[in-house]
Amino acid sequence: GDKQFRRIRALLCSGRVAIGGQTDERERYIAPTVLADGLPSDPAMQEEIFGPILPIVVVANVDEAIDFINARPRPLAIYAFSCDSKVVNQVLERTSSGGFCGNDTLMHVTLTSLPFGGIGNSGLGMYHGKFTFDTFTHHRGCLHRNMGLEALNALRYPPYSQQKLGFLSAAFEIKRRGMCTLL
Predict the structure, then answer these.
(1) What is the pTM of this model?
(2) Distance between alpha carbon 45 and the CA centroid of its chain, in Å?
(3) Are 104 and 150 in the same domain?
């Protein structure tokens, strides 16, 4: 509501408004805005915006861009654009993020065949189709041992002896069935 509008409007002070910047508090409207000449320490670069503001940070080259990304918490998504696929692959291989698009935006959100989600501070879990089911499903490893053979387990408990060690070594070399059920 009003609090969110004021929070986003305050981010307009992060650098110079290059495009947009118009606001209407009564309508809670903020025009799509591009901010230039911002600093990494500016508020728009320190928090998730969730609004129509795009801050631009100028870097000298791809290495500097990758270093900039890696110096911060892992982002929800990285979008890399280049006519040279080696550059896109370099960004993909040298960074970590929830999702990645090369020469496109948001397609990873629309394709249910790709998992969508964050990593670290940008969120946990993957969503879309079966990925959503798996995210909210706990795959629990279960074993139920047959107590009828508990006498054989005496080898597992102290006091240990050379004879027990010999029996254990022999037991682990043989695959047995019927002693445990994996659930």
Answers:
(1) 0.65
(2) 19
(3) no
